[in-house]
Amino acid sequence: MRYNPASRCVIRYRLALERSTRKGTLQRDMTLFGKVYRDPGQAREVHAWMQQFYAEHAQSGEPIVPRPLGIAESLGLTLSEAIESPQGLAPETLRTGLRVFQPRGSEEVFDVIPDRELRLTAVALARLHTSAVWPAGAPRTGAVEARRVSERAAEIASRYPAQAETAQKIANQLTSRLERLQPGAYRPAHGGFKPSQLLFLSQRVFVMDFDGLCLADPALDAGYFLAYLRPSGLWRHRAGMRQWFEDAAASFATAYSLALREHCVGEALVKGILERMRLYEAAILFKSATQRVHHINSPRPGELCAMLAEAVGLKYGSYSSSF
């Protein structure tokens, strides 16, 4: 069970199913997950969208979301099937995105880039962004992200006065650019697309937790993923971390842009998404920095400075220019 106070609760059910037939009793074990939402209306919206999205992808290829099973509307409880190997086949290891996207290599040379998993992730994201099943509600715009950046910068400043001027200056410059963003089109978006929301089984990837489902600039999800793809060692200037991240980011961005083109997204739109992606990365780094402020027990100004410096670089598009 996973519980987020006053927000949602996830429960795992293990079922032993039996069915009598003329040839005897058939048995099957099944695992499913239930998620309880604070707002039953959100539960209905997410479940309805998941049903349509699953059906759309079941017709055109392998679904990238767990199979939705049902909803208890009065409880705000949605049910979905667990990601498992098909019945009758040898079980395979289920890997989390956090595990898959950990830098690997030898000593201080982290040269093992998970290209296959990055490609699977990029293709899944492109399928989401080109889906014909659109969520309800107003778009999540650059102006919305700009407001959140300002709020997070103020929180960082209140907790770490030594970084206040730097955080506020970077935030002001970033919010000015975010507020002016004009994407070619708003698309279905995950709203919190990061490694921890991904599960890998065999040659497939599954996207989880659509609590932030919205219409948005596709660059939001892409930037969100890249912001959280950064290994923690990057903030401590650990040798090899920068090169690993830049290689992994380039692999993802290349695969994502190719997948968008294969879904008939025009060249100008693809180019615009990749350009705006950097600004959203910087915006999400402010979120990551705020979370770091909450979670650590003592100030780590060096790590905070590194994150703010990374946001500056993204604002000017300075890293890995080969996308």
Cα radius of gyration in angstroms? 21 Å
Whole-number count of domains: 2
CATH architecture of the largest domain: Alpha-Beta Complex
Q: How far is it from the N-terminal to the C-terminal residue, by CA?
A: 40 Å
Largest sheet: 5 strands, antiparallel
What would you call the shape? globular
Mean pLDDT: 89
Helix-strand string:
EEEHEEEHEEHHHEEEEHHHH
The neighbouring-strand order within the major sheet is 1-2-3-5-4
What features would you highlight for this structure?
323 residues, alpha+beta, Phosphorylase Kinase, domain 1, Aminoglycoside 3'-phosphotransferase, Chain: A, domain 2, 2 domains, five-stranded antiparallel β-sheet, three-stranded antiparallel β-sheet, 9 helices, 12 strands, globular
